[in-house]
């Protein structure tokens, strides 16, 4: 009879029914989900590739081959952004031609790469050290000593940008592998408020940095062999792009003659010899004439080339270059050569 065989699916004075138990379990699961903090989305550059979990067990040659294979993907990733990089170069060069500056801002590896690129412009292109500037979270001590905590300070970025007194003629490039470093994002926002051109250089797509800037270069390099170590592929990509930005901008500004570094500053024996080779290559003149032209122009290769090719004296060469805005080809035409 029914009272001898109670329905176990129905309610009971001693045990809840099956449906009631299911509801309790569901409620507990929902409560746990509500109480757990939301995990932040991990950008691709920070993700972990499970197939690389045992790299510490690989023989050294195999480990290096793995790294080399991954490194070879970086130029391809950069190539996918060439049109965007070209737009940035042209915009930067146009502003620099009007007296504007190029500023990099980043933290950690990204900041160091910006400082490095800025530091190499004066000896390579004869520029004023104030023309290309590198800002790094934590200041210059952070170039050689890790100060990663500084990257979390938007106020520090705003202060660093304010100290430069940017104008609409200037350009600030925020550099961040993840594209969400607070220092880089805040620097871009602060620069944009001044009317300066702002550019994002990130290694992930759709980043906060790209959203904050007017122009964006997003080189997607994917996960690192050493998970999260963005000094590897991401750092390589950033270095390649920064090389392009500064070098191509200087070419557009007439800081080269063909592929020759005619604005090189001959400040040591190696660079004096390089200047001599550059003048010889550009003019085809005998060594004695090259040395005499360099002596007359104070070691300035561009001036010495003009002296030899236009057959003018050093003061005239300097005047022609000044009138031509430093562009050697234009100065040569004005001097009757070419």
What is the CATH C level class of the largest domain, in words?
Alpha Beta
What gyration radius follows from the Cα positions, in whole Å?
A: 30 Å
In terms of DSSP E residues, the strand content is: 5-15%
**Percent in helix:** 40-55%
**Distance separating the two termini:** 115 Å
Protein structure class: alpha/beta
Described by strand count, sense and barrel closure, the largest sheet is: 5 strands, parallel
Average pLDDT reading: 89
The DSSP helix count reads 15
- Stated plainly, the CATH topology of the largest domain is called Rossmann fold
Question: What is the CATH homologous superfamily assignment of the largest domain?
Answer: Glucose-6-phosphate isomerase like protein, domain 1
How do the strands of the widest beta sheet line up side by side? 2-1-3-4-5
Number of domains: 3
Shape: globular
Please summarize what this structure is.
By secondary structure, the chain is of the alpha/beta class.
Structure overview:
This protein has a five-stranded parallel beta sheet, sandwiched between helices. The protein starts with 17 loop residues before the first helix and ends with a helix. The protein is α/β, with parallel strands linked by helices and 338 residues long. The chain folds into three domains: 34 residues; 183 residues, Rossmann fold, CATH 3.40.50; 66 residues, Helicase, Ruva Protein, domain 3, CATH 1.10.8.1080. Helices cover 51% and strands 8% of the residues. Helix 5 packs parallel to helix 10 and helix 11 packs across helix 12. The N terminus is likely disordered. The protein has 15 helices and five strands.
């Amino acid at each position: 009879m029914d009272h001898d065989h109670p329905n176990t699916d129905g309610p009971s004075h001693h045990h809840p029914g099956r449906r009631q138990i299911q509801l309790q379990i569901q409620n507990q699961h929902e409560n746990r989900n509500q109480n757990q903090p939301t995990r932040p989305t991990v950008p691709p550059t920070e993700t972990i590739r499970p197939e690389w979990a045992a790299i510490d067990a690989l023989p050294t040659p195999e480990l290096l081959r793995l790294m080399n294979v991954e490194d070879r993907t970086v130029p391809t990733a950069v190539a996918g952004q060439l049109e965007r990089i070209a737009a940035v170069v042209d915009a930067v060069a146009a502003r620099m031609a009007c007296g504007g500056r190029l500023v990099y801002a980043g933290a950690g590896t990204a900041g160091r790469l910006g400082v490095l690129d800025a530091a190499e412009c004066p000896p390579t292109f004869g520029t004023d050290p104030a023309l290309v500037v590198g800002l790094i979270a934590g200041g210059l001590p952070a170039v050689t000593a890790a100060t990663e905590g500084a990257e979390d300070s938007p106020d520090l970025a705003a202060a660093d940008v304010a100290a430069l007194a940017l104008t609409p003629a200037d350009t600030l490039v925020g550099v961040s592998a993840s594209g969400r470093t607070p220092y880089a994002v805040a620097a871009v926002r602060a620069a944009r408020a001044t009317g300066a051109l702002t550019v994002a250089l990130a290694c992930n797509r759709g980043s906060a940095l790209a959203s904050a800037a007017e122009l964006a270069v997003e080189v997607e390099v994917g996960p690192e062999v050493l998970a999260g170590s963005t000094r590897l592929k991401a750092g390589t990509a950033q270095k390649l792009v920064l090389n392009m930005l500064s070098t191509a901008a200087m070419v557009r500004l007439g800081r080269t003659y063909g592929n020759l570094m005619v604005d090189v500053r001959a400040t040591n024996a190696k660079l004096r010899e390089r200047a001599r080779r550059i003048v010889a290559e550009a003019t085809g003149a005998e060594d004695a004439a090259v040395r005499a032209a360099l002596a007359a122009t104070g070691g300035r290769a561009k001036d010495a080339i003009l002296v030899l090719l236009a057959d003018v004296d050093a003061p005239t060469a300097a005047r022609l270059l000044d009138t031509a805005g430093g562009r050697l080809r234009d100065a040569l035409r004005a001097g009757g050569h070419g």
